[in-house]
Write a structure and sequence with these properties.
This protein is of the alpha+beta class. It is built from 3 helices and 4 strands, in the order E-H-E-E-H-H-E. It has a 4-stranded antiparallel sheet. Helix 1 packs antiparallel against helix 3 (90-102). This is DUF1428 family protein. It comes from Peribacillus psychrosaccharolyticus. InterPro entries: Dimeric_a/b-barrel, DUF1428.
Amino acid sequence: MYVEMYLYPVLEENKEKFLKINIEAERIYKEYGAIESETYTAASTKPEYGCAGMESAVELHENEILMLEINRYHNKEHQSQVLEKVDKDVQINLLYNQMTKVIDMNRTVRGEFGK
């Protein structure tokens, strides 16, 4: 299994716009072969059990919430094949442009993880 994870700081007032864009992007990722693409709203970002909280990875400003996106693939090669198709999709580029008006992409945290 191979996953991409994104942590997005989103103004509470933009949450519905953000989700609408991401739901459409999830459909595109799955259309091109991603096993799964899901978005979650943080239930807790505070430090607990001796661990730092997610707020240490993404500084949340006033009236912001943390959103998490996880895209799953079979392996790194599968992810590369899917992203090659996704990156050429006209609709995904339009969605990205919409997203840049809803969130600050420079504050988004991204990572890839594999087994």
